[in-house]
Amino acid sequence: MSEHVAALCQHSTPFSQTLSFPLAGQDIRMVVHGERLPGTEDLFILSHLDDEDPESETANPRRYHLSMLQAEEEERKRIARELHDETAQQLALMQFNLMTLRNSDMSPQASDAYQAMEISLKAIQDQVRTLSYLLHPPELAEDGIEAALAHFPRGFARRSGLQIEFRCLSGPIKRDPDMEIAFYRVAQEALANVYKHANASHAVVRLRRTQTGFALEIEDDGRGVPEHILNGQGRDIVGVGLSGMRERVMALAGQLEVRLTGTGTLVTATIPRRRQCD
Ligand SMILES: Nc1ncnc2c1ncn2[C@@H]1O[C@H](COP(=O)(O)OP(=O)(O)OP(=O)(O)O)[C@@H](O)[C@H]1O
Ligand SMILES: [Mg+2]
């Protein structure tokens, strides 16, 4: 168990281990799961008695991981709603109160302070709006992955200066919230990587059908992922983005492939249509 915890701390390697020991004349089986929550420094360790039901969520690591991701998405949705309904409303009230001062007589210092407050308030309002959107993009729930992928890269391109195209080659997709949120989070992280690491000028996001399901591709024309990271030798030095994307699609029985194209990097997430989480 201590090696598992050490590997989790150092390399973010998730584990699930069953321990057996006697207690009050009974054989007790206990399952311990550990993982790093994607995109954070937080470790999550959970233990529970083994209920020995092979169909139970915790007895099945992939299903268990999927339910963790679903809980995480619910929490993001809750925070996004809170930011929108509470924080943004308070900021709007503050803006309204500030505006009532605009035409009043003010000393030059007060006028400077007033203008600085207006600028800061506007910046905070923009940040809250962006954060709330990224935590839970409303069009994902309302209009599906095609609409969300058409919209998100546009805003990302505006903020980052990257040229981003979205090509929907899949035709209409039957609604599948788990797959949609997984593709959306992969697109977010892969584009963030293009922006941070690739030194690219252009990226293309493609959604297409495969024989068994759907694939999301993010291709850039940048410097390419370093070989040692592709070979998995950079585990101790890299962040959690690539492993988080991989875990997300694997929880849906899918795969994540990262490869060099000769002119940049191609990240492909494939998720089968009919999945069995076992
Ligand atoms: N599109 C890309 N082009 C070039 N290098 C990339 C690209 N995507 C990832 N990389 C390389 O792979 C490494 C690992 O990426 P990963 O997303 O796991 O971590 P990170 O982006 O460094 O940190 P985090 O995602 O945790 O904030 C990066 O540090 C970078 O060197
Ligand atoms: Mg990253």
Query: Structural class per helix/strand content?
Result: alpha+beta
Number of domains: 3
Tell me the major beta sheet: 5 strands, mixed
N-to-C span: 24 Å
* Strand-residue proportion: 15-25%
- Going by CATH, the architecture of the largest domain would be 2-Layer Sandwich
Rounded Rg: 23 Å
Helix content: 40-55%
Q: What is the strand tally?
A: 8
Protein name: Histidine kinase
InterPro entries: HATPase_C_sf, HATPase_dom, His_kinase_dom, Sensor_HK_TwoCompSys, Sig_transdc_His_kin_sub3_dim/P
GO molecular function, one term: protein dimerization activity
Domain Histidine kinase: 183-275
Task: Please provide a written account of the structure.
This protein is of the alpha+beta class and 278 residues long. The protein has 3 domains: 55 residues, Pantoate--beta-alanine Ligase, Chain: A,domain 2 (2-Layer Sandwich), CATH 3.30.1300; 69 residues; 129 residues, Histidine kinase-like ATPase, C-terminal domain (Heat Shock Protein 90, 2-Layer Sandwich). Helix content is 49%, strand content 23%. It has a 5-stranded mixed beta sheet. The longest helix has 40 residues. The chain is globular, with a radius of gyration of 23 Å. The protein starts with a helix and ends in a 6-residue tail after the last strand. Magnesium ion binds next to helix 6.
